[in-house]
Amino acid sequence: MTPQLSEHCFTAVSHSGTPVGHQEEIANVQTYVSEPTNPSESKGVILYFSDVFGPFFLNNQLIMDYYASHGFTVLGLDYFFGEPIHECMNKPDFDRAAWIEKAFSNANTHTRPWADAVVKKYGPGLKYCAVGFCFGGPHVLNLAKNGGLIVCAIAHPASPSEDLTEIDECTVPMLFSCAETDQTFPKETRRKVEDRLVEQQKTYHFQIFSGVKHGFAVRCDLNVENERWAKEECQRGMVAWFRRFTA
């Protein structure tokens, strides 16, 4: 079943800045790569699974650069193959439902081979983390059930399955960064997930931010103080979470 997305998944406020990473091809997938100042001293590798705007959307690039500035090597795959939502939705006769189906199909097909290629490129001796936003959340959890990761983090994910199989199968510590208002991950679902994690005695952490909506961690309005603070605190928390398990 394709995870459900909401209207908030397709709206964004563009941020400003100059990305410092570069683009390369890994496993036949274009990838944004951002490296720490001294790559030989990298704390670990973060696999970045973007929202529907893709890894080459400036907001996402700046977040990856932020992680890299804290000592991580960061890679974001373009599972939209050059067709992120903002490049498509204003085209005549655009079919959003068909776009979503194709996007999830491509992501499901290419995520694991891409991740395996990243490990082959950088070596199995490093510590691998994964972070996903909205559309990217399910792919993080899918990757986390098959080994290779040591920790993962998700912000305002696309809706999980009704039976929470992906939560049951996740074998690594999980951070959830959540919006107070979120149609795809509402409080009822969030509390159900928390209950399951408690029941299974897994390692987890929740951040819940008031006054923000789905998408805040990437696409908020930085001119609104509460949204800016929530976005920045979310990213600070994710860096701290990854540092905890890669130290």
Key phrases:
8 helices; eight-stranded mixed beta sheet; alpha/beta; 21% strand; 247 residues; globular
What's the topology here?
Elements: E1 22-26, E2 29-34, E3 44-49, H1 58-69, E4 72-77, H2 85-88, H3 96-122, E5 128-133, H4 137-144, E6 151-155, H5 165-169, E7 174-181, H6 187-199, E8 204-213, H7 216-219, H8 225-246
Parallel strand pairs: 3-4, 3-5, 5-6, 6-7, 7-8
Antiparallel strand pairs: 1-2, 2-4
Structural class: alpha/beta
Helix amount, in percent? 25-40%
Specify the overall morphology: globular
Spell the H/E element sequence.
Answer: EEEHEHHEHEHEHEHH
| Unreliable spans | none
Quickly count the helices. Answer: 8
Topology, number of strands: 8
Q: What would the average pLDDT be, to the nearest integer? A: 92
Strand count, sense and barrel status of the largest sheet are: 8 strands, mixed
- Rg for CA atoms: 17 Å
Strand content: 15-25%
Amino-to-carboxy terminus distance:
37 Å
Spatial order of the strands forming the largest sheet? 1-2-4-3-5-6-7-8
Walk me through this protein's architecture.
The protein has helices at 58-69, 85-88, 96-122, 137-144, 165-169, 187-199, 216-219, 225-246, and strands at 22-26, 29-34, 44-49, 72-77, 128-133, 151-155, 174-181, 204-213. The chain is globular. The protein has eight helices and eight strands, in the order βββαβααβαβαβαβαα. An eight-stranded mixed beta sheet has the order 1-2-4-3-5-6-7-8, with helices on both faces. 41% of the residues are buried. With 247 residues, the chain is of the alpha/beta class.
